[in-house]
């Protein structure tokens, strides 16, 4: 699982570097840059995330990638008190971006997948794996 997540992270990183010039452009609006992030980079990173079990290390890597992209999109901020330019802090990115974080998207995808499997019913093998009841099938076959 860690290798799959690492591969997705590397692909997302490569995708980010391929659109670097677009995200750095002063000609594009921030809204358009966010759309590029959501429609080009995120699908590459999150492909198959419904089956991931994230360790803290992977969560951190995903957050680092997201913060790097958001830092490129929003750029530096002029500090009102000192008048100097500075990078936005990670918490400020979340306030300005106002969308679900990448880790939140993974968890949401897993929950959506679990609901889908739960709706399949107890006769399906995938459901029995989800609830941890692998012996029920053998019991049902013995009754038939």
Largest sheet, described in full?
Answer: 2 strands, antiparallel
Number of strands: 2
- SSE pattern: HHHHEEHHHH
Give the helix level as a range of percent.
55-70%
Tell me the overall shape.
Answer: elongated
Would you give an account of this structure?
The chain is mainly alpha-helical and 144 residues long. The protein has one domain. It is built from 8 helices and 2 strands. It has helices spanning 2-18, 20-24, 30-46, 56-74, 90-97, 102-120, 125-131, 136-143, and strands spanning 77-78, 85-86. A two-stranded antiparallel ribbon has the order 1-2. Helix 1 (2-18) packs antiparallel against helix 3 and helix 1 (2-18) packs parallel to helix 4. It starts with a helix and ends with a helix. The model has no long low-confidence stretch (mean pLDDT 84).
Quick recap of the structure?
With 144 residues, the chain is mainly α.
List keywords for this structure.
single chain; 144 residues; mainly alpha; two-stranded antiparallel sheet; 8 helices
Question: Strands, helices and their partners?
Answer:
Blueprint: H1 2-18, H2 20-24, H3 30-46, H4 56-74, E1 77-78, E2 85-86, H5 90-97, H6 102-120, H7 125-131, H8 136-143
Antiparallel strand pairs: 1-2
């Amino acid at each position: 699982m860690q290798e799959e997540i690492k591969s997705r992270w590397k692909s997302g990183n490569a995708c980010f570097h391929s659109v670097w010039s677009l995200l750095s452009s002063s000609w594009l609006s921030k809204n358009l840059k966010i759309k590029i992030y959501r429609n080009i980079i995120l699908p590459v990173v999150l492909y198959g995330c419904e089956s991931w079990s994230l360790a803290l290390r992977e969560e951190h890597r995903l957050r680092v990638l997201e913060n790097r992209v958001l830092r490129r999109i929003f750029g530096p901020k002029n500090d009102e008190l000192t008048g100097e330019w500075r990078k936005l802090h990670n918490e400020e990115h979340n306030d300005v971006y106002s969308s679900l974080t990448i880790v939140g998207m993974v968890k949401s995808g897993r929950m959506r997948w679990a609901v889908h499997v739960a709706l399949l019913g107890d006769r399906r093998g995938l459901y029995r794996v989800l609830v941890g009841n692998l012996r029920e099938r053998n019991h049902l076959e013995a009754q038939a």
